[in-house]
Amino acid sequence: MSLAMKRPLPEPTQTIQEPSPIVPQLLGSSSGSTASARIYKRIRLTARKISGTTTSILAYVNLLEDTTNSNDALQVLIKISEAMQFEESEFPEAVRNLVEHFRREPESAVRVKILSLFGDLATETGIDCPQLVDEVIGLLKGETSAKVFSQGLQALERIGKACTPTVANVNKMVFFAKSKLFSPSHNVQRHAILLLGEFVLVSDAEKESLELIGKYTDSPDARVRAQAFRSMLTLGERGVVLPPSLYARVCSALTDDYECVRREALQMVYQLGVRHPEQGINIPESDQEIRLIDDAFGKVCSAICDLSMNIRTQAADLLGGMTMVNDEFLHQTLDKKLMSNMRRKKSLHERNADNFTSGEWSSGKKWADDAPKELVNADSVSLMASGACGALVQGLEDEFLEVRTASVNSMCKLALKNPPFAVTSLDFLVDMFNDEIEEVRLRAIYSLTAISKHIILREDQLETMLSSLEDYSVEVREGLHLMLGACKVSTKACMSLVVQKVLDVLLKYPEDRLSTFGCMQRVGQKHPEICMSLTPQLLQDHPFFDSAERDVEDPSYICILIMLFNAAQHLPPMLSLFPETIVKHYAYLRDTMPNFVPHLNVGGQSTELALTGSTGSRQFLETLLNNIQLAYSAPQARQALLKTAQENLDRLAEIDPSFSGTANFTAVFLGTQLMMEQLQVATTGQPTKAPLKDCLGQLIRKCLKLQNLFSSLTLEDELLVKQMCLRASALNLVLVVKDRSQSALAPCQLLLHIAADASNFLQENSSLSADSFTSAILTKLASIGDPRPGRVFREILPVVQAAAPVVIPRINTNIKMCKARILEPSESSFNSDNVIKVTAGLIAAVPLVAELENLQESQRQDLRLKIKYPDQNVHVIVPRKKDLKKIMTEQGESQSHWRLRTTVLLSHGVWTEASPVDISICLSVRPGSELELCKPVKVHFAPKPVKRGI
Question: How many CB atoms are located within 10 Å of the residue 934 CB?
Fold first, then answer.
């Protein structure tokens, strides 16, 4: 018997001791699924009974039958909807009782709640959905209340989405929905149209259902009109071809009085334009045709002048997806003047031919009777709606930041597909650098960075950009550094202007030095010829006299050298212009900051040997793993090899960054195996060198690292990790029971949960096979009826004592490890001479900047700051969500690289002297246990006593 469970029951009938906090952390994401095989099913049931109890839905239904009025019945139904943890075998009888109560219930509110409960049961439990569809339709056939009809249609829609209905059920729901389209209630019509859009068959929709739904776009109720357009869009998403004949009807809805209708109609115009771009559309009162995408583009542009902010935002956002529009229409969005009314001019020959064929000549008796016939109302013959003129400019000047942000994004998308438009839009994007909202300024900066490959900056444009470098926001300054490094400048004067301004701002904001170094690095790489012409000027090198040697620790001087060295990498003749002192400084900077200074053939240095993951690193790792595998039958030699392999792999991860994830994963895996082999000796009664409790804690921590710090694992790698965790939990239980110094209930529950997780994983991936240890453990656990710690211990003890070594993982070069790097504070900025002094009991704020690599979106909420004081007090702080943002690159937003910019608050009692405080970044995978992502940074902190006045 399986269980259907959404959330714990509010009122449990018995008290059960809670498991250890470590239990849910070793489960993984697949622990919530239900296995179907016999062995896995029993393990899953055993683990679930520990965490909660189920109740009988029939008990609630019996209470419903005993109620005397509708209010009491409604309260019982509310309790049922709040529980949602029932035995599935009771569902058929419970549904029958609820149906009977529905038929005899006089109050419509109770009937509505029963139908809503059917929808909850379908979405949150494993109830039989086809039977439920038949029951709901049968109940609604004799119904008269519009509220009940509306709720019934909504319940059918929820039931259909919760499962995959059969064709027969779909036909029943569609037929029932069509019969309710003629209801006088707008709610019933709206839900019927919604049901048709979700479930009508694609073949039927193209024949008649699409036209049937389209008739309701003229409904007198705005909600029905909006739902009709929404359902047609849903049909289009499901694969139904939306014909261009709908375009005229949709365009008329753009002037509807209600915002909900205009919103759906605008989306429909966009979809028709994108799906049928080359379809010809006749212009009213003219014999000309225009492409559908061009006309739709003009309609969307007109919506930017809508009274509703939401419509304006939607229109500005949709413009970015209409990339197939003609260039003249696209450029017109940046010009508020409509040139020549966009009219087709007739030649003199054509005008004379028109006069001759008409037979009408001027008699001279009537004033201006010979005026040209084409001088008619310009609005009636315009090839482009006047709203398209300056539409993007209108969006950039809107009073709401949502509209301005959407306009900037759309301008960027259009410019990426159209290089001439990118050049035209450059000035408008530069003007947005002066926007009052920081988010809009950032959007403009990142958009200009994205289209940098199509543009070359002029001197007048650079002045506006560089004036924004003094912005108070560090994100804006870093965004401008990224943009300046991505763009190209046109002249030598522009380059001098950029270098001088960047260095001036660096003096004002010295904390931006890393961002400035990266900016100058990219500037040098993109402008080697201009940098070569500026080399004597920047280095202050006189042609006849030796110049004084500059301070190599000066940030401004370092910026210049970084730019010139990166330019020399692409233009080697620049090396001849460097003085001898520059060669010495190159060697120093190459050693201290190799990520900014490239390798150059300076001073007769030999070519560096590049160790890449596809050559030397892979060969080394293959040799290492083969040697470990050859020592399979020699425990002493194997353990010595495992210990040496960890040290070599840690060094390999430092040497070859591209191979660091694979090397770290293999090192942690081998370290876990080594610790398990050492602890396995203790299961036979032999003493261990280290304290048993500490060794088990380290083993669990290594398993947590394998589960949480590595991504891009293959299915084979995931199986190895789960099998390793199963071995560790079994070993943990055996040693805890033998030690007899602590309770074995939590380790037993941990083993059951991990076994259930591993069995579910094997059931879902039938192509994988478990090793002998895992198969034996799962078989033993499945044979236990009452899984008490003593019984489980006796069953698994022989398996644990005779366990063979784990299979060595295969080399996977795609593995990435989550790690962090603290940029500020650095060890050099807070040394023993630079102490943070504060009055004892008060707070000192320390700015912290860190970069995180390969952090998954699901791990954001687990990020923590760990502060350890010299008295061993540890504070774990949760950073604010807005302090963690993805790093922007020239290619766009990074997917797994983040920047944490926050403030760490330090406070303590009086100390006699300054002492170091450790600050680190970690992941909180379970309460009281954090996995550190980097080495802690030490800052010297000195709380002073309060000064007493005289």
Answer: 16
Please name which of 196, 195, 180 lies closest in space to residue 143, comparing C-alpha atoms: 180
Average pLDDT over residues 923-950: 84
DSSP string, 660-690: HHHHHHHHHHHHHHHHHHHHHGGGGT---SS
Please provide the DSSP assignment of 710-761 as one string: EES--HHHHHHHHHHHHHHHHHHHHHHHHH-SS-SHHHHHHHHHHHHHHHHH
Task: Please state the φ and ψ torsions of residue 113, each to the nearest 5 degrees.
Answer: -70, -35
pLDDT band per the 50, 70, 90 thresholds, residue 442: very high
Take residue 930 and report the two structure tokens written for it: 């954090």
**Per-residue tokens: 396:** 């950039």
Termini Cα distance of the chain: 81
DSSP secondary structure letter of residue 283: P
Cis ω for the linkage preceding 277 (within 30 of 0): no
**Which two three-digit tokens encode residue 511?**
């904390």
User: Which two three-digit tokens encode residue 252?
Assistant: 């008329």
SS3 876: strand
Cα(267)–Cα(845) distance, rounded to whole angstroms?
49
Pairing outcome for strands 3-5 and 937-944: unpaired
Alpha-carbon gap, residue 662 to 612, rounded angstroms: 13
Taking the C-alpha atoms of residue 710 and residue 855, their distance in angstroms, rounded to an integer, is 9
- Selection from 25, 30, 21 nearest residue 719 by Cα: 30
Which string of DSSP letters, residue by residue, matches 561-621? HHHHHHHHHH-GGGGGGS-HHHHHHHHHHHHH-TTTS-----TTPPPPPP--TTTHHHHHH
Nearest residue to 261 (alpha-carbon basis) of 295, 210, 220: 220
Longest dimension (CA), the chain: 127
CA-nearest of 44, 125, 113, 50 to 83 is 125
**Contact (Cβ atoms closer than 8 angstroms) between residue 943 and residue 840:** yes
Rounded to the nearest 10 degrees, what angle do helices 419-431 and 401-417 cross at? 150
Chain mean position to CA 905: 29
CA–CA gap between residue 183 and residue 189 (Å, rounded):
6
Q: Is the dihedral of CA 501, 502, 503, 506 positive or negative?
A: positive
Q: Tokens 């993007």 map to which residue?
A: 392
Q: Strand pairing partners for 916?
A: 940
331 CB-contact burial (10 Å; exposed 0-12 / middle 13-18 / buried 19+): middle
In whole angstroms, give the CA distance from residue 921 to residue 825.
13
> Measured between alpha carbons, how far is 746 from 736 in angstroms, rounded to an integer?
10
Q: Three-state DSSP class for 899?
A: strand
State how beta strands 819-824 and 929-932 pair. Answer: unpaired
Q: Supply 873's token pair.
A: 């007090």
State the number of CA atoms in the 13 A half-sphere of 406 facing the CB: 23
Q: Which helix (H) or strand (E) covers residue 864, if one does?
A: strand 863-868
User: Could you read off the pLDDT of 563-586 as tens digits, one per residue?
Assistant: 999 999 999 888 888 888 888 888
CA separation for the pair 433, 450 (Å, rounded): 15
* Residue whose structure tokens are 């366990």: 803
Angstrom distance (rounded) from CA 315 to CA 267? 9
What CA dihedral angle connects 459, 444, 456 and 481, to 10 degrees?
80
What is the percent of the chain with per-residue pLDDT over 70, rounded to a whole number?
Answer: 84
DSSP string, 915-933: EEEEEEEEEEEETTEEEES
List, in order, residues 6 or more apart from 367 with CB less than 8 Å away: none
pLDDT of 135 reads 84
Q: Is 309 helix (H, G, I), strand (E, B) or coil?
A: helix
Distance of CA 798 to the CA centre of its chain: 47
Q: How many helices (H) and strands (E) does the chain have?
A: 38, 18
Which secondary structure element, helix H or strand E, spans residue 351, and what is its range?
A: helix 348-358
pLDDT digits (tens, 9 = 90+) for 588-647: 898 888 889 998 887 655 455 454 444 577 888 888 888 877 776 677 777 888 888 888
